[in-house]
Amino acid sequence: RHAAALELDLELVPYRIRELDDAGRLEAMLAENLCREGITPLEEAAGYQQLVELGRTQRALAKQFDVSQGHVSKRLALLKLPAKAQTAVDAG
What is the rounded CA–CA span in Å between residue 62 and residue 29? Predict the structure, then answer.
């Protein structure tokens, strides 16, 4: 947000302070990252995985991020690929 404000020559940047737990912080970061260009499928998968480890279900993640449960499942499956295959996925 700060970088975007600088690019637009804004002197004031609107903000909202919220108290978030660890899961809430991860959800907010992932939501923001999903909106930016260039996020890789593996980066997306890693964000989902962190939330799953905090007790979120694939169904809940799909609803929250407006994607299908299959999408979440397929992204998480990428993390089970061998390192060489993950490198190939990152390379496109």
Answer: 16
